[in-house]
Amino acid sequence: MMALKPLHPGPSLPDSAGWENEIMNLSETLIGRARDIAPMVASAAYDTDRNRYVSSDVIDACLDAQLFEILVPKVYGGHELNYSTMASVVYEFARHCVSTAWVVSFYIGHNYLHALWPKGFQDEAFAKGPCSFTPGTIAPNFRLTPVDGGFIANGLSQWNSGSARADWFLNSGLVMVDGKPQGAKAFMVPVADVEVIDNWDMAGMRGTSSGDARLTDVFVPMHRVVDVSDLLEGTTPGAQLHANRIYGLPVLPFVFGETMPVMVGAYRGAAEAFQRLTEERYTTFTSSKVQDKQTAQIRIGKGLAGASVAEVLLRDYMNLLDTADPQDLRPIARRAEIRARIGMVSDYVKTGIDDLMLGAGGGAYRNTSPLQRFSRDMNVLRVHGFLDTETAAENLGRVTLNLPPNCPL
C-alpha cells in the first residue's frame, strides 16, 4: 500500500525553506502518530460498530496525539497546518474503521470551523485548550427568533455525528420575522443547552453516534452566529481575522473534503480485507484454495488497483484545497463541479466495494468481518445528502445550463 503524504506544507513565503521544512516535519509527525493509533482503531472496530460510538480510549489517544488541532490557528495554540495533513490522518483510520474516521474527521474539521466564527466565540471554544468537540450540521433545522443581543433557537436536528462526546453543537436555522424567513444563520451552542437524543440505530455508519439534538428556547448571542452566506462564500469573520488563506475557503469544498479521505481509506481497507479473506478461504465442496481461482485473483487485482485510483483522486483534492486561491472556489459553477466530483467518488468507491463483496462468500457477512462493515458503511454514505451523486450531478447540469442550483453550494 502506498502511504499518503502531504503534498504542500502550507502557504509559501519568500525565503521560507526552513519554515516549510518545520511544517512538513510536524505534519509527518502527526501522520505517524495516527499510524501508531490505527491498530487500536482496528481492534476496537467491532465494538465501535456494536456500541454505536467511538470509544473514549480512541478519542483520548487522538487528543493526546494532538490530532484535533491540525487546522486550529496558532494564536489559539493549534498547528495551523493544511488539509493534506488532516486527510492523511483520517485516511489511516478509515482503512480500519469508517465510523472512527468519520468522527475524527468531523472533530478536526469542526475545530477548523470554530476559526471561522467571530473572535468572541473563538475565545470561548479555545478557552480550555486548542481544540474542543463539536458535533452538528449546517442543515437549517432550527427556527431563530430575533431578540436583543441575539436569537432564540427552537427545533430538532438529525445526523449529529460524534454526539456521544461534545462540548458544543453546530447548528443552522432560518431567521423568522412575522412568520417569514429572513435568511439563514449558522450558530454554536454549548452542550449544556442541548437535549442530546440517543436514537442512532442504523444499518451502516453505526459507530458514529449521529443522534438527534433538540433546542428549546435557547438563547444564542450574536458572537456565536455566522451568516450561512458568508460560510458558503468564504467571507466569514474568521476569514477577516486570520491571515492564512485556509480560513477564507468557501465552506462546502472543505466539508466535502472531510468525507473524501474517509471514503478512499475505506476502499483501501476493503481491498486489503478481501485479499486476507481470499488467502484464508477454501471452497465449500472441493476444499480447494479460493486464491487459486481466476475470478478471485481478478477481484483482488481490481480492488487494489481501484483503491490506488481513489488515492490519486484524493491527492488531487488535497492539492486543490491546499493551493487554490479562495477566490477561485467562489464561483457557483466551480463549487457545483466540486460537489459533483465528490459525489462521483462516493459512487466509485461503493461500486468497487460491492464488487469485492460479491466474491467474498457468506462468511464475509458475519458481524465480525471487517469487509461487511466497509460495505454497509459505504452504502449509507452513498446516500448522504452531500454525497448523493444524482443531486450533485443534477446541480452541475443546472448551473452549466445557467439555471439556479436547487441545493446548497
From TrEMBL:
<keyword id="KW-0560">Oxidoreductase</keyword>
<dbReference type="GO" id="GO:0003995">
    <property type="term" value="F:acyl-CoA dehydrogenase activity"/>
</dbReference>
<protein>
    <submittedName>
        <fullName>Acyl-CoA dehydrogenase</fullName>
    </submittedName>
</protein>
<dbReference type="InterPro" id="IPR036250">
    <property type="entry name" value="AcylCo_DH-like_C"/>
</dbReference>
<dbReference type="InterPro" id="IPR013107">
    <property type="entry name" value="Acyl-CoA_DH_C"/>
</dbReference>
<dbReference type="InterPro" id="IPR009100">
    <property type="entry name" value="AcylCoA_DH/oxidase_NM_dom_sf"/>
</dbReference>
<feature type="domain" description="Acyl-CoA dehydrogenase C-terminal">
    <location>
        <begin position="262"/>
        <end position="388"/>
    </location>
</feature>
<dbReference type="Pfam" id="PF02771">
    <property type="entry name" value="Acyl-CoA_dh_N"/>
</dbReference>
<dbReference type="Pfam" id="PF08028">
    <property type="entry name" value="Acyl-CoA_dh_2"/>
</dbReference>
<dbReference type="InterPro" id="IPR046373">
    <property type="entry name" value="Acyl-CoA_Oxase/DH_mid-dom_sf"/>
</dbReference>
<feature type="domain" description="Acyl-CoA dehydrogenase/oxidase N-terminal">
    <location>
        <begin position="41"/>
        <end position="106"/>
    </location>
</feature>
<dbReference type="GO" id="GO:0050660">
    <property type="term" value="F:flavin adenine dinucleotide binding"/>
</dbReference>
<dbReference type="InterPro" id="IPR013786">
    <property type="entry name" value="AcylCoA_DH/ox_N"/>
</dbReference>
<dbReference type="InterPro" id="IPR037069">
    <property type="entry name" value="AcylCoA_DH/ox_N_sf"/>
</dbReference>
